[in-house]
Design a protein that fits this description.
The complex is a heterodimer of chains A (115) and B (111). Chain A has 115 residues and is mainly β. Chain A is built from no helices and twelve strands. Chain B is mostly beta strands and 111 residues long. In chain B, β4 and β5 form a beta hairpin. The chains are: A mainly beta (115), B mainly beta (111).
Chain lengths: 115, 111
């Protein structure tokens, strides 16, 4: 069965500092991995995805994520955090060879960036 | 494109009443998903459709919940009768190439 773990309920960083939001996954085969962001009272917005190729994936708003197969991780990163990055972040996974399956989401990590 | 459109955005009802949530997916998308979000359980997949056909409804909590997709541009999620524990934000999402596009959600409060 597929699963996603986001070990931190909340991450606090100061504006201008680098940020990391952690995600680990479990699938039987190769993974397709996604990050989404949710602002208060809004739906989830797609940030970036890993399908294949370069392990470092760049996405919207200056975010990037690194796929690490040996550690089964897909951590979200940004070199310099902004106050406006404060939101709820979700990691999601599905198996690469199962096109007809849904994404499984982690429980989410609240990112709080202080000025 | 207007994106995924959900209605109503907010619904307050009393226990025992029927609730119908509606979703219009993005035109051309062939997958439609219903998720439920609560503080305790996070984001749960309820059911999803491919080309209007239900593929997996194993996440539907119980028989009080039902979902339909009569055509490619419309889906409903119905709860009958509603209970206070059904209070949550219900999201509809559609996809074509892998990533999901979410609606703004329907916040349901059952008193």
């Amino acid at each position: 069965a597929q699963s996603v773990a986001q070990p931190e309920d909340q991450v606090n960083v100061a504006e201008g500092n680098p940020l990391t939001v952690k995600c680990t996954y479990s699938v039987s085969g190769n993974p397709y991995l996604f990050w989404y962001v949710q602002y208060p009272n809004r739906g989830l917005q797609f940030l970036l995805k890993y399908i294949t190729g370069d392990n470092l994936v760049k996405g919207s708003y200056g975010f990037e994520a690194e796929f690490n197969k040996s550690q089964t991780s897909f951590h979200l990163k940004k070199p310099s955090a902004l106050v406006s990055d404060s939101a709820l972040y979700f990691c999601a996974v599905r198996e690469a060879n199962q096109a007809g399956t849904a994404l499984i989401f982690g429980k989410g990590t609240t990112l709080s960036v202080s000025s | 494109d207007a994106g995924v459109i959900q209605s109503p955005r907010h619904e307050v009802t009393e226990m025992g009443q029927e609730v119908t949530l509606r979703c219009k997916p993005i035109s051309g998308h062939d997958y439609l998903f219903w998720y439920r979000q609560t503080m305790m359980r996070g984001l749960e997949l309820l059911i999803y459709f491919n080309n209007n056909v239900p593929i997996d409804d194993s996440g539907m909590p119980e028989d009080r919940f039902s979902a339909k997709m009569p055509n490619a541009s419309f889906s409903t999620l119905k709860i009958q009768p509603s209970e206070p524990r059904d209070s949550a934000v219900y999201f509809c999402a559609s996809s074509y190439s892998g990533e999901l596009f979410f609606g703004e959600g329907s916040r349901l409060t059952v008193l």
